[in-house]
Specification:
- The structure holds two protein chains of two kinds.
- The longest helix of chain A is centred in the C-terminal third of the chain and has 24 residues.
- In chain A, α2 links the parallel β1 and β2.
- In chain A, α1 crosses α7 and α3 packs parallel to α5.
- Chain A is 36% helix and 15% strand.
- Chain A is built from eleven helices and eight strands.
- The radius of gyration of chain A is 18 Å and the shape is globular.
- Chain A has an eight-stranded mixed sheet, with helices on both faces.
- Chain B is of the alpha/beta class.
- Chain B is 41% helix and 18% strand.
- Chain B has a seven-stranded mixed sheet with strand order 3-2-4-5-7-6-13, with helices on both faces. Chain B has a six-stranded mixed sheet with strand order 10-12-11-14-15-16, sandwiched between helices. Chain B has a two-stranded antiparallel sheet with strand order 1-8.
- Chain B is globular.
- The chains are: A alpha/beta, B alpha/beta.
- β2 of chain A pairs parallel with β9 of chain B.
Chain lengths: 297, 395
């Protein structure tokens, strides 16, 4: 039986965020804080969200916020938790909120350290699949086939020819108690997972897909739709890894990948055979995920 | 209580007596015994603190920054490659106005690999906005850590401090150290309670984006903080002396400089050797003295200006070299005295890099050279001492 989660009404992101129209990261922050509530401290490294709270002294977040260095999120959450522990504060959730570059590239060492130390915190990676704050440069999280300013199409090399780092597998290898993927197109699933992460002691990792209209070359009014297509085309399956066990929370419609690609300018250069090979990668990953779920790993 | 201990243990005891609440550290030679000892203190319950075994020095400082912003007193220790890896976050700590205290066991930079004393690592961080204290003895290491918290946690200062121990010469050499009673330290150093901290129910952003029309004011205020630190160093040392009966010389520790024709400027453990040399040469009738740079940041400009009027020559000993310029202490000393009516001859001696011994004999020869140079001026402003292949024999 499906249980329906009610999304908390209270807002923790004030109007005035400087995000672009249709910014997926805005929704990720909004749903995350709705699920976590007021007793939360957030730290943010260099990324879009380092700019989005607004210029000093304005701040659109209704929770305390520590800006940290680009590669330092994992260390910052460890420091915050240690300070709260030593002061005897137990009921505050510590959150590291970082982009994909700040997580899978420059921040990977500190992230790994925090996970290995079992830091009691939630690490949220909002994944817009490139360095968007600096103007759409490729990251280790940019998918195969995508255009970015540093993987320019029309040159001898062309689009990005390397596949996206599987950060969920990297985190699973750290044997953390909870990891989950979330999408702003499915807020109930999103909120439920964050609430679960909040209840779980230890290091929790959340991978949030975060559509980026300027970087993905999409219509800002379609951000939620694009996020939904990513799930339905199984490019971004919704699942959780709870104490090492994989559980798919939404199977999606199994739409062809082309439905997801065709609404995005960053994939327009792909030929049919290239799209077919992308479809094959998606299909293989999906089968692997199903196998993981059925085998209980 | 008097105990025999290394400089590294003096650091650990200093941090313990100061009741550091969060310690985040990563091992590096020759700092390791500091954090080993602190891990022991925490694990035995002797020190009520959280020890974060981070995965690198950048993270050590980043974790201290976060913990300190959340209102905890923090401590870390590092050396050489570790300190320079921290460079970005050192700037962060001072820009965020966090009174973090750290020991740096000053060691040479690679390549070539070298784990021995050299001040390049410390000197390279002079622009990071940290107070920097060079120490002459293990006692001074312990005392300066306790004083540094008090100096830095003043609302007018709110900047971090680096306590510098010379690699091996202090870090691994045992000396008698007076370890003060905890109650006495508590009466001197109150608990850390910053005006602003990360606190649930008080949503604020720490380290937000500021525009060009506001950024300079933040830097200007940090400059005022460093200016205030100058006065605080002197005041806190007097308070310290009142309670503990010891002092270490303020920003510039003068030894027999009152009537000196020639003064040597040095920092760190070599100053202890230089004091003996001063005594021995004075016994032979030479009027010489030693000005030990204790605070490299804030730099004792005023003290040097007042010294300039009383002496004919200043020999600046640098245990590091800034390529394309000269020794950093030399350029600072020169810039200090430029505005003086009477300017003594100043010469730079580069010595003791990568742990090479600076013997009493070498120091004697520097004094002798300076006594000559102070009368006729220096042919070479910067001279490398005791280097194979150079014409002058120093040994």
């Amino acid at each position: 039986m499906m249980t329906k989660t009610t999304i908390p009404v209270e807002e923790f992101v004030f109007p005035g965020s400087t995000g672009c129209p249709g910014c997926g990261a805005n929704l990720v922050m909004r749903y995350m804080l709705k699920a976590l509530g007021e007793r939360t401290i957030v730290t943010i490294p260099a990324c879009c969200w380092a700019v989005m709270p607004g210029y000093w002294p304005s701040n659109c977040l209704k929770v305390p916020l520590l800006y940290c260095a680009f590669e330092a999120t994992g260390a910052a959450i460890s420091g915050l938790r240690a300070a709260l522990d030593v002061k005897g504060v137990e009921d505050v959730t510590v959150v590291g909120f970082a982009g994909d570059g700040g997580t899978v590239d420059i921040g990977l060492q500190a992230l790994s350290g925090a996970a290995e130390r079992r830091t009691d915190a939630i690490y949220v990676m909002y994944d817009n699949e490139a360095y968007m704050n600096t103007g759409i440069q490729r990251s280790g999280s940019t998918p195969w086939g995508a255009w970015t300013t540093t993987t320019p199409v029309g040159t001898s090399h062309g689009f990005k020819h390397e596949s996206k780092k599987d950060i969920m597998a990297i985190m699973q290898a750290h044997k953390i108690p909870y990891a989950a993927t979330v999408s702003p197109a499915f807020p109930e699933d999103f909120v439920k997972k964050i609430e679960k992460a909040k209840r779980t002691k230890g290091f929790k990792f959340i991978h949030a897909l975060s559509p980026c209209p300027p970087g993905w070359r999409t219509n800002p009014s379609l951000s939620v739709e694009v996020a939904r297509l990513a799930v339905d085309a199984r490019v971004f399956p919704l699942y959780e890894i709870d104490e090492g066990k994989v559980h798919i929370t939404r199977k999606g419609k199994g739409l062809p990948i082309v439905d997801y690609l065709k609404v995005q300018g960053r994939f327009q250069h792909l030929t049919e055979p290239e799209i077919d090979s992308m479809q094959k990668i998606v299909d293989d990953n999906w089968i692997m995920l199903l196998l993981k779920e059925s085998s209980g790993t | 209580m008097r105990m025999v201990m290394t400089g590294n243990y003096a650091s650990a005891y200093g941090a313990k007596l100061a009741r550091a609440e969060v310690i985040a550290a990563y091992p590096i030679t020759p700092q390791t015994s500091i954090v080993e000892k602190l891990a022991e203190f925490v694990s035995s319950g002797e020190l009520k603190a959280k020890f974060i075994p981070v995965e690198g020095e950048h993270s050590a400082m980043a974790a201290c920054i976060a913990a300190q912003t959340a209102g905890a007193r923090t401590y870390t220790a590092t050396s050489s490659q570790g300190l320079t890896l921290m460079h970005e976050v050192l700037m962060w700590a001072s820009g965020a106005r966090l009174p973090i205290v750290m020991t740096n066991v000053s060691r040479a930079m690679a390549p070539p690999w070298n784990v021995w004393v050299d001040h390049m690592d410390t000197v390279a961080q002079r622009d990071t906005g940290w107070l920097q204290f060079f120490c002459r003895s293990n006692q001074e290491v312990l005392d300066t850590i306790i004083m540094a918290y008090k100096i830095c946690e003043t609302s007018g200062v709110m900047l971090p401090a680096m306590i510098v121990e010379d690699a091996f010469i202090l870090s691994h050499t045992s000396e008698p150290v007076d370890v003060p009673e905890q109650a006495l330290v508590d009466s001197f150093l109150p608990a850390y309670s910053p005006e602003l901290k990360l606190e649930v129910g008080k949503p604020m952003g720490f380290g937000s984006l500021v525009k060009p029309d506001q950024y300079m004011e933040f830097r200007y205020k940090a400059m005022l903080g460093m200016k205030e630190a100058r006065e605080r160093i002197l005041r806190v040392e007097q308070e310290f002396k009142h309670i503990f009966g010891r002092e270490h010389g303020g920003l510039l520790d003068l030894y027999k400089c009152a009537d000196a024709d020639v003064v040597m400027v040095a920092a760190g453990s070599v100053a202890a050797t230089a004091m003996d040399v001063v005594d021995a040469m004075r016994a032979k009738g030479m009027r010489i003295g030693l000005a030990r740079i204790r605070a490299f940041r804030p730099f004792p400009h005023e003290e040097f200006r007042s010294l300039a009027g009383r002496t004919e020559g200043i020999a600046v000993l640098d245990r590091s070299f800034t390529f394309g310029a000269a020794g950093a202490m030399f350029t600072e000393v020169k810039s200090s005295i430029y505005s003086c009516q009477k300017r003594p001859v100043v010469k730079n001696y580069i010595a003791g890099l990568g742990g090479r011994d600076i013997t009493p004999k070498i120091l004697e020869k520097i004094f002798e050279d300076m006594l000559v140079v102070s009368k006729r001026g220096a042919e070479d402003e910067v001279e490398w001492v005791d280097v194979a292949g150079l014409p002058r024999r120093w040994r």
